[in-house]
Amino acid sequence: MKIEKAVRKAIPFIGCFYGKSGSGKTYSALKLAQGLANGNKICLIDTENGRASHYADEFNFDVINLEPPFSPTRYLEAIKLAEANQYSALVIDSISHEWEGIGGCLELADEGKTATGKSLTGLNKWAKVKMEHRKLMQRLLQAKIHIIFCARAKDLLEQEGSGENAKITHKGIIPIQEKNFPFEMLVTFFMQNSGKVTIEKCIKGLQAELKLSPNEYISEKHGKVILDWINKGSSVDFRIKELRTEGMEIAMSGNSDLLLKWFTGLNMKDKLLVKDNGLNEELKNIVDNYSQTLNSTEESTITENEVKELQTLIDKTNQSAMDICELYNINALQELPKSDFEILKKSLQNDTQKTQTALTI
């Protein structure tokens, strides 16, 4: 940990266009990418059945047609492929499939299981899925190329009042993605009708330079303005970014042995970069955090053997498994929190002794 002078860095752009179908997200994203790439290569990850290729006559870009499942891991593979082939700008159309598409986060949560095949319940179903989503977000924040997202949008509806007085109120339009997704962006553009945009989130200094009035169209010049603003920042040591990205992907496995193996395999120069920039401590903390998440997911509910042990005790009392489930507000004994196991077991043992004593008398 060290204190140093704050300096704006020339970090690659990360932004998002979101709006309803037909609002001009893909076209606007490609226009912006043209300016950001500044004559260099552009790649587009297409999850929309090849629709982006309709613009192939107007824009010069390569495409990765991403098929289901739309898991965070699949998106990561496609992003790495684009980086490895040295594209300057990457358009992802659309990032919404990662959240609610086939094999996306919502489906993964519904199918949630532990490493042993045990079905997860409640919030536990989301633990691993959110961890995979965070891996994707962290990887994007460490990217070496400019990334532009296109996200579908939906109406935000809320119920006000209850009973006969209840009414549904429209609260606006939101991206179809995890709720914190927009906050990771440098710039968030909301698509109005016919391709016009409104800036919803942007750093003040950059927004002043963009000079984008409400309901204006995005053009290549806006991408060049952003690129010029970024390049005014101090240069970034991309080797450190690469090491941080590599290290974080391993650290997020929660396996300290794998992290140590990665570090010992580095050359001496890279090892010094990791140490001098405090990256070693940062990665150790990430390992600890993700290890705790994994452990809590695996161990938060009782095992099958513990279920059988409780059922045996229940059968010896005047209670039923249904009574126990109602008491703990669970659907089945398998959902009993591990922290409650010993207390319940002792209680059932006492009840068993009382029942046996009563039968003897």
Please state the structural category. Answer: alpha/beta
Helix content: 40-55%
- Tell me the number of structural domains: 3
CATH architecture of the largest domain: 3-Layer(aba) Sandwich
What's the order of the H and E elements? EHEEHEHHHEEEEHEHHHHHHHH
As for the CATH topology of the largest domain, it is Rossmann fold
Total of DSSP H or I helical runs spanning 4+ residues: 14
CATH class of the largest domain: Alpha Beta
Provide the residue-averaged pLDDT.
85
Shape field: globular
Low-confidence stretches: none
Main sheet characteristics:
9 strands, mixed
How does this structure look, described?
Strands 1, 2, 3, 4, 5, 6, 7, 8 and 9 form a 9-stranded mixed sheet that branches. A hairpin with a 6-residue loop joins strand 5 and strand 6. The chain is built from 14 helices and 9 strands. With 361 residues, it is α/β, with parallel strands linked by helices. It is globular. The model has no long low-confidence stretch (mean pLDDT 85). Helix 1 crosses helix 7, helix 5 runs antiparallel to helix 11 and helix 12 runs parallel beside helix 14. The termini are far apart. It has 3 domains: 218 residues, Rossmann fold, CATH 3.40.50; 62 residues; 55 residues, no CATH class.
